[in-house]
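ok new one. same drill as before - structure tokens go in, u give me an amino acid for every spot. 352 of them this time. try not to just spam alanines like last time pls lmao
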């Protein structure tokens, strides 16, 4: 066990990538990096980390920001509940804890949006507490090295791998060990085409020995993917106004803005014009509905696929909206936090 941890630390010190969050033990910055990197590759998360630390240098700056500004800065990272939890925790730490983060695993776990993995990472890196991190990279390394075929996303697997991770924990250097096993999984023991021939653990890896590198780790099949059909009405008046609305219900994209939405599978221009939802948005009789693209854009989320179409509604003037909507200058929608799907459409629309 000791040999395993020391080999990983040695490998890490020789091969680790230079990252800004590795130059500090400030819990605010470590926490920020860990939240951003949940469900996100380092290459994608790094510019967001730099933007957040530049815009909000301290937890007080983040706490005092408006939620819309936080969501706008988060735009494109997905899993927006992370951003809302990030903001809520910043407020709690700034206002209730006077800006001082909890200094141990158990108390860190009480923070909103902080689970076992994140609490372990912060506690070990900032406070040298010997608590192991267990993420996708760690599951893969342990599963392959020890030849464990228990599904990593089963209750039994979660318990088994956590127990093993605790036993393997390097008590003398928990910070480097945790970062080492994560980095090792990301760079060396990759999901596909791992570098087994130059691996420092290849003389004792069970998966390599038994030819199970491509089989391990085992994962139970995901839930059935739900299909949803989004039809956005992009109003565009002669005075360059449009209609946007904020998603307020729990679910995807809560707090973000979008165009008026018809969620129906079978729809065309005629049905849009006859729909009561559409008729309630304008009294203008001189309008034109134009499909923006021929085929739907398929936007894939973890448990649902969104088949999305945009319909541009050209009219003289926007004359009526309901309470949940607002009329804004078309160019001003760049300042509102929107899902990346809509952000891409807006960028393309302005180019055309």
């Amino acid at each position: 066990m000791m040999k395993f941890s020391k080999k990983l630390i040695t490998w890490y010190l020789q091969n680790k990538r230079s990252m800004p969050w590795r130059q500090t033990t400030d819990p605010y910055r470590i926490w920020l990096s860990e939240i951003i990197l949940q469900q996100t590759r380092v290459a994608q998360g790094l510019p967001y980390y730099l933007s957040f630390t530049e815009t909000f240098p301290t937890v007080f700056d983040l706490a005092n920001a408006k939620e819309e500004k936080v969501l706008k800065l988060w735009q494109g990272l997905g899993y927006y509940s992370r951003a809302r939890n990030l903001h809520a925790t910043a407020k709690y730490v700034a206002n209730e804890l006077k800006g001082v983060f909890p200094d141990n695993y158990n108390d860190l776990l009480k923070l909103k949006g902080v689970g076992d993995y994140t609490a372990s990472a912060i506690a070990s890196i900032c406070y040298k507490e010997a608590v192991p991190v267990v993420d996708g990279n760690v599951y893969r390394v342990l599963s392959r090295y020890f030849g464990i075929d228990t599904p990593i996303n089963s209750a039994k697997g979660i318990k088994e791998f956590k127990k093993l991770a605790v036993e393997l924990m390097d008590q003398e250097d928990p910070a480097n060990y945790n970062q080492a096993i994560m980095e090792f999984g990301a760079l060396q023991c990759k999901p596909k085409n791992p570098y087994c021939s130059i691996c420092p653990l290849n003389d004792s890896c069970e998966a390599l020995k038994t030819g199970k590198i491509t089989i391990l780790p085992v994962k139970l099949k995901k839930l059935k993917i739900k299909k949803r059909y989004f039809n956005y009405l992009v109003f565009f008046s002669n005075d360059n106004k449009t209609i946007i609305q904020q998603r307020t219900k729990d679910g995807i994209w809560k707090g973000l803005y979008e165009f008026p939405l018809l969620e129906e599978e079978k729809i065309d221009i005629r049905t849009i014009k006859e729909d009561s939802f559409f008729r309630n948005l304008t009294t203008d009789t001189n309008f034109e509905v134009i499909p923006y693209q021929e085929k739907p854009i398929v936007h894939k989320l973890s448990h649902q696929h969104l088949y999305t179409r945009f319909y541009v509604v050209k009219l003289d003037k926007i004359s009526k909206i309901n309470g949940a909507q607002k009329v804004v200058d078309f160019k001003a929608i760049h300042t509102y936090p929107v899902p990346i799907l809509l952000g891409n459409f807006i960028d393309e629309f302005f180019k055309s």
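The chain has a mean pLDDT of 92. and btw The radius of gyration is 24 Å.
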